[in-house]
Design brief:
With 114 residues, the protein is mostly helical. Helix content is 75%, strand content 0%.
Length: 114
């Protein structure tokens, strides 16, 4: 069997790894083993935090809705409960946008629920 020298492929692989760690601190940017480990951790965190971001936004929407509701003399939990009882299906993102950008529309929904 013929001999295969892997110098070119190995160099290409190393160059790609180090290119991805550009901007990292200390050895993580210029030592291959440390760079690979840093990329593995970065990838794991990116995966987890893409999911966390959805919960963070839902919390933000709830806070915005509650702020508008408290100005109008009610609370978030009472409002959401009343929406459910009246079978009004509008999501929290849309309610948040309405509370922030179009308070008149939000007040009309609030009046319907009360």
């Amino acid at each position: 069997m013929t001999r295969v020298k892997r110098g070119v492929l190995k160099t290409k692989s190393r160059r790609n790894v180090l290119k991805m760690t550009k901007g990292y601190r200390l050895n993580r940017r210029n030592k291959e083993a440390a760079a690979i480990e840093a990329l593995m951790h970065a990838g794991a965190n990116a995966f987890a935090h893409r999911r966390d971001k959805k919960g963070d936004f839902r919390t933000l929407w709830n806070v915005r809705i509650n702020a508008m509701l408290r100005e109008n003399g009610t609370t978030y939990s009472k409002f959401i409960g009343a929406l459910t009882k009246k079978s009004i299906q509008i999501n929290r993102k849309m309610l948040s946008v309405m509370a922030q950008e179009n308070p008149e529309s939000f007040k009309r929904i609030l009046a319907q629920v009360k």
